[in-house]
């Protein structure tokens, strides 16, 4: 039988960047133009099958609104992986993403795998965060980096797969 490795994963990032939308695209293959803002946090599971076993992600989708920020440590403390999401059309959300990277580097498990997702790639024509800038930041901090679109389904499965592969190679 296939070996299954559980992995706790947290999604972090400013409100409205598309954390819930990425998950709904991954799990339900759907996208909503009027996705409701998350209250507190929501829990999902999703299994990625690899050649040498499967990774079962136990996912906490956190709420990005500022009033929920103090809850984040409760979710990232025991996490083995994190996806930090920003919106490529909104520079402030990239600054917020950098803040979360630092916070995890200081306070999360030392072996945590962190991925950076520049979401809303379908809005490329009105981007305000250049790919090179994010890629450089990701490289300097040892992060997996991809630009994604929950709307047009770009790099959604791929970013989870990259995390699963990195975890299995550790
Ligand atoms: P909080 O739950 O408040 O933290 O927000 P969130 O990060 O979960 O964002 P959510 O998934 O609710 O998406 C916010 C808005 O962005 C919704 O209107 C989505 O339809 C839209 N959105 C999400 N992903 C994309 C994307 O890839 N492209 C475009 N164009 N819009 C997106
Ligand atoms: Mg949400």
UniProtKB/TrEMBL annotation:
What does the record list as coiled-coil region(s)?
none
Keyword set for this entry? Nucleotide-binding
GO molecular function terms here?
GTP binding; GTPase activity
The reply to whether Signal figures as a keyword in the UniProt entry is no
Keyword Nucleotide-binding included in the entry's annotation = yes
Question: Family, per the entry?
Answer: Belongs to the small GTPase superfamily. Rab family.
How is this protein named in the record?
Ras-related protein Rab-5C-like isoform X1
Name the encoding gene, please: LOC112682680
Included range, full protein: 30 to 199 of 224
């Amino acid at each position: 039988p296939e070996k299954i490795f559980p992995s706790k994963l947290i999604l972090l990032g400013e409100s409205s960047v598309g954390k819930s939308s990425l998950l709904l695209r991954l799990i339900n293959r759907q996208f909503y133009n009027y996705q409701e803002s998350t209250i507190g946090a929501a829990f999902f599971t999703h299994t990625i099958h690899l050649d040498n076993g499967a990774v079962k992600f136990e996912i906490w989708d956190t709420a990005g609104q500022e009033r929920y920020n103090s809850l984040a440590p409760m979710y990232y403390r025991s996490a083995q992986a994190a996806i930090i999401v920003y919106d490529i059309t909104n520079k402030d959300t990239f600054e917020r993403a950098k803040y979360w990277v630092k916070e995890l580097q200081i306070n999360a498990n030392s072996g945590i795998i962190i991925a950076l997702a520049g979401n809303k790639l379908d809005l490329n024509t009105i981007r305000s965060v250049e790919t090179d800038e994010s890629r450089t930041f990701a490289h300097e901090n040892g992060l997996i980096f991809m630009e994604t679109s929950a709307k047009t389904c770009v790099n959604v499965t791929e970013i989870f797969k990259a995390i699963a592969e990195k975890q299995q190679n550790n």
